[in-house]
Specification:
Length: 591
């Protein structure tokens, strides 16, 4: 099965060689030696950053390309209004034409990989074919790669075939590039959910090319999950331990640029509380026979944004990436270490920037690309929870939701019911910052459950699946939803909440709400802390600031309702009636 597919793809792509990746350290070391010899990466100073490498991509290949990401299902309605739909037969024909001979002069690497811990009922096998060694060494960090998975597949276990080519064949006499890729109009990230197949062409970067992550673990898995009654979500997973040693697990969905990786590794400022990481990006969730919701992290590493990562914002990430790390599109210091905007310490007097150009403090451009990344094994984190690879998952008590909002949203509010929580998730959104679209700064971009680019089917059906999952959980087992907002501003435009490690105070309140240890005040939008129940000990914050953080401005909320209505209209007839009702209930509670 696997071998037949590989040979068929080799006939199509016509590589010079085929290499089956065994996943061993020895093999990985050989790949890295070859990468250095071919000048496709540099080795960092081993005294400062042992066993670490830096890659620099083509400036035209620096991020996921949503406008070239396709859901190819038989019926267009199955892709819904949030995806780019293509007819699968047509798309395959179009892409086959591109793959024909696309690996000439190159080696085709066959990567057997697994998403999820060994032995978990939710884990999925994949085989990625690629002509990029960058992809091979990154996949080995981000997923469980190697012979052990291949054995399972050869014994007859299912796998998701993932075909990837950078789309830059080397004809006779042609010289390779440091970062081969294809122009935008020949880039394709194609998903065939009915066949459970992924075809990616023309990009070597991140989620476009490391197909286990966004393509398999979110887009395809979300379709499988809907069919098989589980959930594939864009969520971190946290373990919280209180001073008495009691443990709760929480998941959290946040759009990009909200600090999801920072939250997943947070260092609490309140004594006796401990936070550990299960995952920082993706959660697969299912209801077990005891009637509770459990989560696994399908990934094996972190593919984090470098910019802004520092000992101040995320000390545990900094410790994690101290060695054995692959960096992409960051700047290089004169002593052979990495640098990016927002890292600790003084600005260097000279750097080589991500485009391999000399950079000085008065060069009017960032030294590291804003989407520059680190790739590192989760097992290297000093705060990885010991049960992070438990095939049985961890039981979830709370689901955090949030976005970047300068007004309207309080620091934290709790759902009134499961359906109200799904409503909160459906209307999630983040204000557009300078880092996103310049012409719409300040507007709220709706991003239901932070899944907008990752739902592999109709967004209305996806939201209905969330409603239905509530029905399979007994009420006492339903996790509570908590909408948090670290980004509310005062009249002067200053952040009202110190954020970062101080967020542990909010997690403490959430923890104690799950235990019914603290009362809450009911407001039209949900439950908020009663005076004295949010621990503000040793926090130098004015009572007026706290009032502002929790202020519910009726006018702002009426505007919010109008904006949610418009968003719901864009979803169309498949929007669950339960959510329409929640919107009406909210409107009624507000008058
Ligand atoms: O990650 C963030 N978190 C979550 C941390 C666990 N960020 C960074 C977001 C960009 C990725 C935050 N930024 C958070 C936050 O809680 N809060 C803020 C806003 C903020 C920024 C600076 C300060 C306070 C709040 N204060 C000083 O710089 C002194
Ligand atoms: Mn993500």
């Amino acid at each position: 099965m696997a071998v037949a597919w590989v040979h068929e793809m080799a006939m199509l792509c016509k590589p010079d060689h085929i290499h089956w990746v065994d996943g061993s350290k020895a093999e990985n070391d050989r790949f890295l030696d070859q990468i250095i010899k071919e000048h496709k990466a540099i080795k960092l100073n081993p005294q400062l950053r042992p066993d670490s490498y830096a890659f620099f991509s083509d400036p035209m290949d620096v991020a996921r390309v949503e406008e070239r990401t396709f859901i190819a299902s038989k019926n267009e309605t199955d892709a819904g209004p949030t995806n780019h739909w293509r007819n699968p037969v047509e798309l395959k024909a179009e892409m086959k034409h591109l793959y024909r001979g696309s690996m000439r002069g190159r080696t085709m690497y066959i990567i057997p990989f697994m998403m999820g811990p060994f032995g978990s009922p939710l884990s999925k096998n994949g085989i990625q074919i690629t002509d990029s060694l960058y992809v091979v060494v990154n996949m080995r960090i981000m997923t469980r790669v190697g012979t052990r998975v291949l054995e399972k597949i050869k014994q007859g276990q299912d796998f998701v075939p993932c075909l990837h080519s950078v789309g830059y064949p080397l004809e006779k006499g042609m010289k390779d590039l440091a970062w081969p890729s294809a122009p935008i109009q020949r880039k394709y990230i194609a998903h065939f959910p009915e066949e459970e197949l992924i075809w990616s062409f023309g990009s070597g970067y991140g989620g476009n090319a490391l197909l286990g992550k966004k393509s398999l673990a979110l887009r395809l898995a979300s379709v499988m999950a809907k069919k098989e009654n589980w959930m594939a979500e864009h969520m971190l997973i946290l373990k919280v331990t209180n001073p008495e040693g009691q443990v709760k697990y929480m998941t959290g969905a946040f759009p990009s640029a909200c600090g999801k990786t920072n939250l997943s590794m947070l260092v609490p400022t309140i004594p006796g509380w401990k936070i550990e990481t299960i995952g920082d990006d993706i959660a697969w969730l299912w209801v077990k026979r005891d009637g509770r919701l459990y989560a696994i992290n399908p990934e094996y590493g972190f593919f984090g944004v470098a910019r802004g990562t520092s000992y101040r914002s995320n000390p545990n990430a900094m410790k994690t990436i101290a060695k054995n790390t692959i960096f992409t599109n960051v700047a290089i210091t004169d002593d052979g270490d990495v640098w990016w905007e927002g890292i600790d310490g003084e600005k260097p007097k000279h750097l080589v920037d991500w485009q391999k150009q000399d950079w000085y403090p008065d060069s009017n451009r960032p030294a590291a690309h804003p989407n520059g990344r680190f790739t590192v094994s989760a097992s290297q984190s000093p705060v990885i929870a010991r049960e992070w690879e438990d095939p049985d998952g961890v039981p979830i008590s709370a689901i955090l939701l949030g976005g970047r909002r300068s007004d309207t949203m309080p620091l934290v509010h709790e759902s009134l019911s499961w359906n109200h929580g799904v409503f909160m998730g459906s209307m999630m959104g983040s204000e557009i910052t300078a880092a996103t679209l310049t012409n719409e700064i300040g507007k709220v971009r709706r991003d239901p459950f932070a899944m907008l680019p990752f739902i592999g089917y109709h967004v209305g059906d996806y939201l209905k699946h969330w409603i239905d999952m509530g029905l399979t959980l007994a009420e006492e087992n339903q996790p509570k939803f908590f909408y948090v907002n670290w980004f509310r501003l005062d009249q002067e435009g200053q952040f009202l909440w110190p954020g970062f490690g101080e967020n542990a105070r909010v997690l403490k309140w959430i923890f104690e709400r799950c235990d019914h240890r603290v009362e809450a005040a009911q407001t039209p939008i949900g439950y908020v802390p009663i005076k004295g129940t949010l621990d503000l000990t040793n926090l130098n914050i004015a009572p007026e600031q706290i009032n502002q953080l929790f202020q519910i401005d009726i006018k702002n909320w009426q505007k919010e309702i109008e904006s949610i209505k418009a968003f719901y209209q864009s979803i169309g007839y498949k929007l669950p009636k339960e959510l329409q009702q929640e919107l009406i209930h909210l409107q009624n509670r507000l008058v």
